Each structure stands twice: as structure tokens, then as C-alpha cells.
Amino acid sequence: MPDGAISWALYGSVLDSGDTRGFEFDLRDGEELYISLLIPDLEPETTLSDDELPVIELESPDGTTRTIENDMREPFAERFSNTSYLTLSEIREPAQQGRYRGVVVGSSPSRFTVAIGEREEFFTETERSGDRPSSFPDLAAPLQAWYSTPPGAEAPVELAEGEAEMEMDLIEEAIDEGIGSAPEGALGESSTDEEGALVESPTDEDGSLGWVAPAAAAVAVALGGGWILMRRRGHDDLDHQHSDV
After folding, report:
1. What is the number of domains present in the chain?
2. Who wins on pLDDT, 152 or 209?
3. Sign (positive/negative) of CA torsion 199, 154, 211, 32?
4. Can you tell me the distance from the alpha carbon of 34 to that of 47, in angstroms, rounded to the nearest whole number?
5. 202-214, pLDDT tens digit by residue?
6. Global confidence as pTM
């Protein structure tokens, strides 16, 4: 991701202890580093102990590396896509100039979401991100596939009616209110087939590291095929505007 100040959300899964997924993003002097790790508020993730949860290992531009500790399990309901999460960790600090390299390290099979940045711009260009959706309707099928399929499972589980479905009226309202920006056509009809298969992320030669493919979305963002994660700050902005009406 060439601009880590833009709000991104990267979705993926780790399938075993030691399984890894990698990502990179650039920041500049004067910007802020924001990164957070979430899991879906679903089984099996909610049944995992603290030691069984994935963690982020982050290398800064100066070469120092740290493991970001999971110090919370804060519920987060994402109403734009009707999905629910638990926030495990979150850091915000002045950024270093240069490239950050992150790795999500698994201890047990688990889905995860990495949130990066806070500036709301939809469908921003990235590197090594595969064939990404170019509109919000295109995000629906990959989101449902990721959210409804436990890690390692061959078939999805049944979701409640309306769960993991895009709320296009709310998304359009947020854009109209200036919470985020999107290119022309982003609110149009879906161009994907009904299957909406996830985009495979390339791996390193030894197969140990899969790159999580991102797709930027306003106060939010997405991954491996791409879908939206509307961040808490976006909700607060919209709720505040509604309360003033």
C-alpha cells in the first residue's frame, strides 16, 4: 500500500500455528501510524484463548521489529456490511518516514482483519493486490465468502438473514455527507458472477508467506478480493451528523 495514511482493511485467514500473512505500507514524516487487529465475532475465533489468537509482528522503517500485543477484545459492529468483530489490538503513534512491513502470525486456525490508516478514500491503487473489485456491489460476494467460511472449512456456514450484506443506502449517504470519497461508478451494479470467488494471494517461493491483497474503502477498507470495513470513526461521524438533524 503506497499510502498507509489512507484507511485500509486487510482480510485473511491463518490455517495453523506459525502460518503467516504479510503486508507492506508506506508513511511519511508528519503522518500518524495507525494499525489494529480484529477477528470476526464468530466461532471458532471467539472460542480461542489469548495464546491461540493471531498477532501482528511489525517492522518499522528503521529496522526495529516488535510484536503488537493483543490487550483487548472490544466488540465492533460494522453496520455498513452487517458484520461484527472483536478488536484485539490497536496502536496510534507518530510515523517514521519509509516502509513498514507487517506479518500476521497464527497460533490456531483463525480469520483476521488488519486495519491501517484513517484517511477515507475508496478504491485506491495498490501494488501486488491481484484483481480487485472496483465498486461496492462487487465487494458483497467476497465479503460473504470470507465471513461465512470458518478457516480451513470447505463450505460456508449459514448466516442470518441480511448478515454480511452491503447496505448501499448507508454507504451512499456516508459519501454524500463527505465522510469518504469514491471514484465514479463505485456505487454501480456488480460486475462479478454469483460465485464471487476470493482472489488468491501470491506466496513467497517457500510458501511460508502469503501477501494479503488490500482494497481501500473510505473510512474503511478491504482485502483478498476486497470488501468494506467501516471503521468506528466513520460511524461516530455519521451518527453525530444524524443527531444534529
Report:
1. 1
2. 152
3. positive
4. 27
5. 344 443 334 444 4
6. 0.72
